[in-house]
Known about the structure:
The structure is a single chain. By secondary structure, this protein is an alpha/beta fold. The protein has one domain: Rossmann fold, CATH 3.40.50.1110. It contains 16 helices and nine strands. The strands form three sheets. A five-stranded parallel beta sheet has the order 6-5-7-8-9, sandwiched between helices. It has a two-stranded antiparallel sheet with strand order 1-2. A two-stranded antiparallel ribbon has the order 3-4. β3 and β4 (86-91) form a beta hairpin. The radius of gyration is 25 Å and the shape is elongated. The protein starts with a helix and ends in a 16-residue tail after the last helix.
Amino acid sequence: MRRHRLFQALAGTWLLLSAIVTAGLGGELWLRIERLASLRASERFRRSNVFFANLTELNAGTRSLWAKPWFKYRPGARAEVVVGGERFRIEMNSRGYRTHEFAVPKPPGLVRIACIGGSTTVAGRTNEETYPALLEAKLRALHPGLPVEVLNLGISGVTTRHWRERLDRVLAYEPDVIVQYDGINDVCWLHMRRYARAHWLRAWAYRSLLLERLFPFPVEAMDSYLEETLDNLGAIARVSRERGVGYLAGSFATPDPRLMTGELRRHFDVNVEFWTRFFPMHSFGTWAAILERYNRSFEGFAQRRHLAYVLVHRELGDPALFIDACHFTPTGIGRLAEAFLPGVDALVRETPAYRQWARGPASAPPSARQPARP
Length: 374
């Protein structure tokens, strides 16, 4: 009798385990089929979107532009392509930046703004369509005759650590204001890589689409890593203040998953796999939750440190403004410039050069009575 009961218990356990394994394999297969549908939807999006198809050119990542890839551009480098009726033209100045030539020392009376960041700073169909160039045009329209220029010092792929370590180089260009728009490169290329090393078992398990669904990523686990980015921003702001330079930082925008449906959502679910290659994720919603957590921390951090800041993510969440998880369409780039304009203008008005200009032409140095550039 006991042997019979033991046999029944073992058989029941075996059947239960078999059912669990079968259900698990079935669930995994179903999710894999769903992923294939998402891959096809994303491919259709890429083929139909000229900006995504030329993302490398739009974000100044073309191989021929680099002196050292994802670190430094080659001075004087140029690249141009015309696809689908869109012209992409990238030109680096003699210092290796996608901006106009500029003088050092800075001419007397000139208000100079330096924009630092990654590909979302350097991005644009042409040099004139990057957000720093559009920001300069808006400032000139707001203050006709003010000698003001905005430098685009962005470098595709770099992190906040890059700018913290090279802040002296930026300050050597004598900016009156520094504007920083950073975030995604820190999260994806630094923090998630470190998290994957520390939690290798979860990273391995997430190769299974089913296990990722059953055991969602604990977004709060990223908090300690995100603190490093905030610490870098704080250090840059502190040194800038010590040098008498205004500093403005932006939160980081990503498409709002609540506004996505159908094939667009499938495209972003696929695209996020590129950004989370060091820790595999297949849900854009999870990625957006990490960015939302970063942006909340950013806002609290900026308020505690009394930093000037712009909540970019609250103004640019419409998926129609994005090509992927962070890069904007040309319309989105224009909206980014608009988002930064009020905060930058407030800092510009505090500069000695602006105050001297505002008092009237007679008080301005001769070299500053006309705009530095047309």
